TrEMBL record:
Residue intervals of the HTH tetR-type domain: 11-71
One Pfam family from the record: TetR_N
PANTHER family given in the database record: HTH-TYPE TRANSCRIPTIONAL REGULATOR BETI, HTH-TYPE TRANSCRIPTIONAL REGULATOR RUTR
InterPro entries, A to Z: Homeodomain-like_sf, HTH-type_TetR-like_transc_reg, HTH_TetR, Tet_transcr_reg_TetR-rel_C_sf
Keywords for this protein: DNA-binding, Transcription, Transcription regulation
Protein name: TetR/AcrR family transcriptional regulator
PROSITE patterns (UniProt xref): HTH_TETR_2
Cytoplasm among keywords: no
Signal peptide, first to last residue: none
Organism expressing this protein natively: Actinomycetospora chlora
Amino acid sequence: MTAPTPTRRGAARHSELFDALVALLLAEGFAHLTLDDVAGRLRCSKRTLYALAGSKEQLVRAAVVHFFERATTHVEAAVAAEREPTRRLEAYLRAVAAELAPASPRFMDDLAAFPPAADVYARNTRAAAGRVGELIAEGVAAGAFRDDVPTAFAAEVITSTMVAVQQRRVAGATGLGDAEAYDALATLLLHGLTRDLTSPASPASPPA
């Protein structure tokens, strides 16, 4: 087996540090943390952090970019594992919820209040909305989704909801975290509000 080159080792260490940084920020937020705090928690030097980014602000933005790039990879892997259009759309939304689940309310509030990072989230939300539109169109073409609701309208409704989640308006109005909101969106989109009367949990019909 060929030994890793210094470049590979450096890239691996770079990725490990970003993973650790992302985990820290997701759990605790970042507005209150100094570079000294971050270096101490990650058990590295400030010089190491400066090798990743030139300032705390740049470091936070880079960590948020890393988070969404990693999340996108995981979400697309979940979609690729499914073949049926309905399950692919559900897999997408549930996977987005799973990726956002570790994010604490403090992190999401800090993210919304820090424009460089909020812009990264907004761009990823727009990309996600576009991907959902593609999955809906795929389902309509395959006959898995009803075609009496225009695809563009469905995509616009979903996009508006996703943007409202990203802008913290859903959290403010409902108390739901972003991950919970995406999970609820998946349920509403695929199952609506109608109770499944065939479910064992449903009340039994009265005798005739």
